[in-house]
């Protein structure tokens, strides 16, 4: 059944970094805020340590297979922050000067590392981002650091949003952190938004946006069944003066494409210039005897390594190639990563095999040694090759299974520059980890699901050129005043590092402009500039959170 239209000052689509941050500030400033999230509302007690169908793992993820690119993202209240590994580096300075395929600076001239740093600082305070000490890194991270040193490279502990005093090194944080060590948005911005009156509605999937006769917006949604995401149990409409799209780079452009018939022509860049953040994975099978001999490692029981399953995701990165003096498409980071069994064991390949090895004797042999695996995550500069085709009738993809799996309309054909950048990074991983016989290395195959990303970006990107960017430098959709995009869609291109910190900083930066736009539409709202205090318990969905004292905010350009 269809409910009568409701109304709110601000309607936020999605509850990840771009949605939670903007929802909090606008609610704290006095606006009525409603957040629609297509996924379930899971709390710390819901996070399970298994990969069974129907567990928190399959309920909280969205895996969409496209043509040449597959996207793995969050699908729950808190979005990607619930399932990410909490690595929070800032983008290198050279990233903001990239030209990519358009022959001109992709980022708006108003944004560079200097102007974004104050907003990075705010996110670091709100999410308690700290640089790990060597005592905090996982054993796998330590092995990667030792291998880098052995081959004449450097290694760096990653800054993370993880409370090490609460972390048990269970390595299940990708399925949600039940110990509340990972500082997901469930522990700060979202409960703070609720304490200021924001309403969060899980299992509400936005389908399209239309316009009211007064020039405001109507957001049309379906209610999704809690067990089978293919089933719709209702629908409704909410009217709002301001709409903030933060559904993720794989869903935000699809909603806008589906809305074009009602709203009018979309900017050319909506659904174009998609970037997978240049991501790629290599698996090394460590020779335990060589790890002991070459790296002098010993866990105290005569074992050198064999701890693939113990840790907390990425803890150590090699950043030697993040050098602004190097030419574009030759700069990348190499990051130790734990990728859980399942997709990882399928896509990991047998070293030395010419063709993809899905099964067989050789694959069985390397699976026996899975505890001695080390996965290296590469982030290069890709060329924004992704394009979204016509949108499906509902949702961001054609849902295949009751949870998690869908078929999307994204087409991705990597250009020569992207392919060569992957090859360079693969060669360096191989050089580092195969030195003196330490391991055997093989990149994951792209033959089954194409390239893959857990950090989709740039499908509705910011910029100064109206032809190659969908948003202006305030995150407002060109030609559609009052609609803003604050998720990874807005980031113009690959960052060569994990993007969560940058997405969050851009969302913080966008808030003053959104407040001004809301004021122009008669909404009684102010920008207070306070940050949410940390929360230790996500089990309640009506937490009272007292914001921290006002923190002077930078002025957005």
TrEMBL record:
Could you tell me the keywords of this UniProt record?
Cholesterol metabolism, FAD, Flavoprotein, Isomerase, Lipid metabolism, Oxidoreductase, Steroid metabolism, Sterol metabolism
Please provide an example of a Pfam family that matches this protein in its UniProt record: DAO
Q: Which cofactor does it need?
A: FAD
Q: Enumerate the spans annotated as Glucose-methanol-choline oxidoreductase N-terminal domain.
A: 67-272
**E.C. code:** 1.1.3.6, 5.3.3.1
The record places domain Glucose-methanol-choline oxidoreductase C-terminal at: 452-507
Domain FAD dependent oxidoreductase: start-end pairs: 9-42
Q: In which pathway does it act?
A: Steroid metabolism; cholesterol degradation
Q: Which family does it belong to?
A: Belongs to the GMC oxidoreductase family.
What protein name applies here?
Answer: Cholesterol oxidase
């Amino acid at each position: 059944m269809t409910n009568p239209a409701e109304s709110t000052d601000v309607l936020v689509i999605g509850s990840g970094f771009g949605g939670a941050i903007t929802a909090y500030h606008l609610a704290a400033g006095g606006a009525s805020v409603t957040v629609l999230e297509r996924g379930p509302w899971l709390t710390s007690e819901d996070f399970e340590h298994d990969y069974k169908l129907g567990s928190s793992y399959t309920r909280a993820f969205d895996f969409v297979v496209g043509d040449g690119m597959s996207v793995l993202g969050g699908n729950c209240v808190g979005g990607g922050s619930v399932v990410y590994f909490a690595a929070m580096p800032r983008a290198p300075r050279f990233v903001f000067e990239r030209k990519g395929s358009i022959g001109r600076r992709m980022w708006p001239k108003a944004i560079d590392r200097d102007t974004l740093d104050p907003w990075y600082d705010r996110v670091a305070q709100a999410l308690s981002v700290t640089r790990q000490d060597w005592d905090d890194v996982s054993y796998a991270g330590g092995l990667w650091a030792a291998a880098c040193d052995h081959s004449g490279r450097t290694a760096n502990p990653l800054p993370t949003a993880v409370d090490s005093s609460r972390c048990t090194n269970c390595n299940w944080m990708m399925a949600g952190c039940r110990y509340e060590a990972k500082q997901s948005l469930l522990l700060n911005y979202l409960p703070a938004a609720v304490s200021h009156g924001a309403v969060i509605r899980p299992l509400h999937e936005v389908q399209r946006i239309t316009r009211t006769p007064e020039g405001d917006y109507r957001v049309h949604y379906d209610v999704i069944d809690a067990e089978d995401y293919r089933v719709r149990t209702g629908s409704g409409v909410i009217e709002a003066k301001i709409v903030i799209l933060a559904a993720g780079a794989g869903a935000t452009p699809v909603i806008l494409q589906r809305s074009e018939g009602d709203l009018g022509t979309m900017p050319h860049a909506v659904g174009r210039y998609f970037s997978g953040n240049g991501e790629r994975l290599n698996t090394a099978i460590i020779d335990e005897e060589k790890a002991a001999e070459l790296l002098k490692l010993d866990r105290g029981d005569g074992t050198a390594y064999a701890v693939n399953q113990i840790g907390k995701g990425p803890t150590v990165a090699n950043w030697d190639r993040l050098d602004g003096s190097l030419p574009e498409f030759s700069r990348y980071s190499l990051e130790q990563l734990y990728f859980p069994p399942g997709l990882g064991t399928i896509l990991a390949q047998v070293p030395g095999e010419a063709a993809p090895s899905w099964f067989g004797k050789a694959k069985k042999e390397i699976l026996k040694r899975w505890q001695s695996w080390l996965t290296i995550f590469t982030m290069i500069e890709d060329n924004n090759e992704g394009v979204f085709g016509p949108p499906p009738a509902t949702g961001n993809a054609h849902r295949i299974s009751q949870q998690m799996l869908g078929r999307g309309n994204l087409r991705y054909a990597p250009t020569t520059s992207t392919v060569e950048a992957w090859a360079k990074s693969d060669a360096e991983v191989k050089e580092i980890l195969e030195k003196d016989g330490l391991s055997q290395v093989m990149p994951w195959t792209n033959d089954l699901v194409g390239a893959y990303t857990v950090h989709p970006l740039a499908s509705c990107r910011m910029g100064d050129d109206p032809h190659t960017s969908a948003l202006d430098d305030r995150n407002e959709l060109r030609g559609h005043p009052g609609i803003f995009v604050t998720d990874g869609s807005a980031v113009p291109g690959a960052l060569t590092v994990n993007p969560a910190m940058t997405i969050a900083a851009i969302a913080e930066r966008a808030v003053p402009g959104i407040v001004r736009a809301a004021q122009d539409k008669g909404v009684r709202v102010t920008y207070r500039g306070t940050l949410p205090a940390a929360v230790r318990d996500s089990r309640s969905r009506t937490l009272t959170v007292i914001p921290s004292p006002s923190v002077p905010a930078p002025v957005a350009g």
